[in-house]
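pasting input
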Amino acid sequence: MSNATISDVAKKVGVSESTVSRYLSGFKVRNSESIRKAIKDLNYRPNIMARNLKSGKTGMVAVIVPDITNPFFAAVVRGAEVAAGDEYMLQLISTGDDPVREEAAIRRLNGRVDGLIYVPAKEDSDAITELEDYAFPVVFVDRVISNLSSFDSVLADNQTGATLATKHLIDHGHSAIAHIAGPSASTPGKGRTEGYFAALKKAKIEKNHDYHVESDFTVLGGYQAMMSLLALKKRPTAVFVGNNLMTIGALKALRESKVNVPNEMAVIGFDDHELSDLVNPPLTVISRDAHLQGALAMSTLLERIRDGYQFPPKQLKVDSNLVIRHSCGSTCLYRKTDTGKRILSSSTSS
Amino acid sequence: MSNATISDVAKKVGVSESTVSRYLSGFKVRNSESIRKAIKDLNYRPNIMARNLKSGKTGMVAVIVPDITNPFFAAVVRGAEVAAGDEYMLQLISTGDDPVREEAAIRRLNGRVDGLIYVPAKEDSDAITELEDYAFPVVFVDRVISNLSSFDSVLADNQTGATLATKHLIDHGHSAIAHIAGPSASTPGKGRTEGYFAALKKAKIEKNHDYHVESDFTVLGGYQAMMSLLALKKRPTAVFVGNNLMTIGALKALRESKVNVPNEMAVIGFDDHELSDLVNPPLTVISRDAHLQGALAMSTLLERIRDGYQFPPKQLKVDSNLVIRHSCGSTCLYRKTDTGKRILSSSTSS
DNA sequence: AAGTTATCTGCAATCGTTTTTAGCAATTTG
DNA sequence: CAAATTGCTAAAAACGATTGCAGATAACTT
């Protein structure tokens, strides 16, 4: 039950604590055999707290996400965990989009972890600026703080993805194309909106400000945004929705309003899902590898923990792909992949 | 940057370390004002490792789930986190259904956490029996180890839920009802199969062993199981699928085989999802409150951490509800709820 | 066999707290 | 006014490991 200490082992064998400690760290020791036995007999496990106190390391990495229930963030976490191997364990903080909880969590992190992978809920939190004072390295995922360029980040190629999405709608003959956007204060919200406008501009379609509605990345937000779009005197014929949750909300609004997809309204979402294939109609989306984003974040973080900031901060980006199903109407413009999904690859990683 | 220690604060104020420590623990202290100031000036934060070493507590609770990417487990984790408040932080381990990783993780937990919320991937792991030797309390969620009754658990009412599901199919006039089951060695797999057979028996429908196919709770497993069901000379007309992932797989198989749901095959799943509403056709499912399961698990765990095992182990169960949509065909037998879902509540919690 | 070097060992200090102990000053009491 | 009580305080001993240092064995030299 209550754990034996290193001194119990030492006593039992008749050597000093330091000898046992050395044995544990892999040094050559005379009575290694009897030490091994004593450790087993006493069921001795080193006290991690004591070890950490001495070493100043914790063997822990924190991951902060707005909501673990969002499959995208879940995949990021999973990717991070896989990349951590068994060198580091994960401390998960899912803040429920609550900046207050988030700040409090960050403050409690100091001294508990060796590093942080951080997907901020809001990008102007006070606690974030404190991050620079903390002793551990931070890697931002998906969202960055504009005035904090001293940290590494792993983003998606939002612009290219959004352009791809919008262009896909244009290629289907649409010109009344709406965009349900995330908060313009957020990296992905801003980037995707930029991509949307860029595609419109390139196709010489003039901006209709009614068609650009800013929402909040939630199901309810997407629902309301879609409703407001449907209430317009001149309805759009197509919509690019800025994330997975809002797409669900938008789809609910469309079904509730008995608007046919894709005939009356073409829909393209951002972020894929196992079920996107099975919804009615199967959803065309921009997808990117969330698992990879998490894994990249973890590996750059581990690098920082190991080597510090002798190299300048990295800004990594992962590809966005267009996954064509049926929610924009059918086309056969694109190549088929072996998975049965028609994919148009987009941007290159840097 | 590098953190100030309590002795730095003490020196600056001109008192002893113990006085600062007492101040921090809320005792009355003469120079409290100047201590407060010194702490702020030096940006002093107590070293958690040292504090933990002394107290023997870690302020951490581990949560082990087979796969954080499964929305059910994500909801459990979220529920647990909310219930933890800011008293405890969460250490997440998502083992990817790999028992080896799981065992390794459990072993590394000792000394790092004050308690464990555990959804085992396999229910016969070696490491699990070691759990009894460990110093921290454990609460099992969703699955229990049969020969380990000394721990608390929070389960779903699998039997009642499965009976409800099967009865729903029977009520629609089906008698050739298949069941794609989870591993019979697992608590939910076993329980749901029992409920399925119980409902058949009550309706005096004789068992057809071809209709009971045991799978593995994965998308692929569900797909293959459905395929084998479709290959039968006498196809079933309805199927009760034992979890969310297998339901996705089964649905894919059905779509690929161009089998119409619900006309040629009625489908009912276990565990609801935000998108269940939007798939084609909207999915009728048994649902239970995963968030609640996580929260209950956390609160019983915190109780154990506080009070130890002076009270006997609790076995908690949460309700299963029938959420009727369209994948079994339409009925109006059931009451409508204000959320627009028609719900038939089932079992009582204990 | 003696001298030199290479290994291994125990002692003691250290990491940054908390907590027990004993002591001192101020206040209250008989 | 002495004695008892109260209210803080500082010093020191934990908590359980790791590590530099110096001494003790052991293993090579010649």
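fyi The radius of gyration of chain A is 25 Å.
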